[in-house]
């Protein structure tokens, strides 16, 4: 699982304790045996985490998912709310990036003016 997802064994155990991952099948040596569906689920959890979903909200989603198709609507609503939050965050980040780009442009213009002045002044000697 670690190789397939890039998640450490420690994080996987944390996800189990946090009830994000259901009980995992084990072999006779008590080693965890993850299925392809488990791998895809962990990848989805990682995507939720990378988009800023709090662990508590991920847990809520995982609990709903474990209850099956009867919880499709609440899962849909939860993901829609997260998507709306993500859109707001992207808009804020875009505004910050634009402000930073404007500041960089202003500094570059200032440096260009200083260099032009220095070159013009050097020719006066």
TrEMBL record:
Coiled coil: none
Molecular function terms from GO: DNA binding; DNA-binding transcription factor activity
Keywords, ordered alphabetically: DNA-binding
Domain HTH merR-type: 1-64
Protein name from the UniProt record: MerR family transcriptional regulator
Taxonomic source organism: Propionicimonas paludicola
């Amino acid at each position: 699982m670690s190789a397939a997802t890039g998640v450490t064994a420690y994080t996987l155990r944390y996800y189990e304790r946090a009830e994000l991952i259901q009980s995992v099948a084990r072999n006779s040596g008590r080693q965890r045996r993850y299925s392809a569906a488990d791998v895809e689920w962990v990848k989805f959890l990682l995507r939720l985490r990378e988009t800023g979903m709090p662990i508590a909200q991920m847990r809520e989603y995982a609990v709903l998912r474990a209850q099956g198709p009867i919880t499709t609507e609440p899962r849909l609503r939860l993901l829609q709310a997260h998507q709306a939050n993500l859109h707001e965050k992207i808009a804020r980040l875009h505004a910050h990036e634009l402000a930073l780009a404007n500041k960089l442009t202003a500094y570059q213009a200032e440096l260009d003016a200083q260099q032009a002045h220095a070159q013009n002044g050097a020719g006066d000697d």
